Amino acid sequence: MDRVVDLVSVTHNLRKAKQIRVRQPLAELIVATADAKTREALKRFEQDILEELNIKQLTFIDDVSDLGTYSVKPNFKVLGPKLGPAIKEVAAALAGMDHKELAQQAASQNSVSVTANDQAYELNAEELDIRFEAGSHVEVQETADMIVALNTELTDELTAEGMVRDVVRHIQVLRKDQGLELEDRIVLSYATENSFLAEAMSSWKDYVTSETLAIELKQDISGDPQKSVTTGDAEIALHVEKIS
Q: For residue 113, what is the domain's CATH number?
């Protein structure tokens, strides 16, 4: 459960960093871990994790380099005084090497071997500037036993679902403001000039009616709306009427 709590906490932090609310569904959460017990624990509670975080898929990978690229350069502040003018040749030699392999070697052996101008150099990890850059739409955070990557790309489909979920939240608040009981059935009317939101409401009609106990969904409002709200960059007017 500690691993599950860690993963949920880290993912919330990643959402917060990109200002993506939990109501907005995301496509994928990726976990890289070499610890078998951690992976087993997360798989056991996979469905709970996905529901809690509103994410479609949990993916496990062995190699974090699949998420982006490594950059390995000399730590000039440390190596400059040690190598003197040779630092330039060492930097050039590092630039021509496989940075993924260098990073893995530094992690496993705490040092890397470099040859520059026919001279061999053994550089320890502290003498290197090793950085990992995640790919676009990927936010990464590391814990003691796993690396968590959140795919933050918002497709039209995900955006539509997020907007509809937000509208449903406002409808639930409106139901409460109108003094309706939890079991009361309603006719739900709405109006929006935003074509994207209108299409989303139509596509997600079954979800909207199920969540709000609406027996009918009308894409127009007779008279004044009871509430107007904004979701994303779209405005929508709402009206609920209790069924006697």
A: 3.30.720
Shared-domain flag, residues 81 and 163: no
Residue-wise pLDDT for 36-93, tens only, equals: 888 999 999 999 999 999 999 999 988 777 777 889 999 999 999 999 999 999 999 9
Q: Domain check: are 124 and 59 in the same one?
A: no
How high is the mean pLDDT of the chain?
92
pLDDT at 18: 93
Neighbours of 242 (CB within 10 A): 13
Instruction: Report the domain count for the chain.
Output: 3
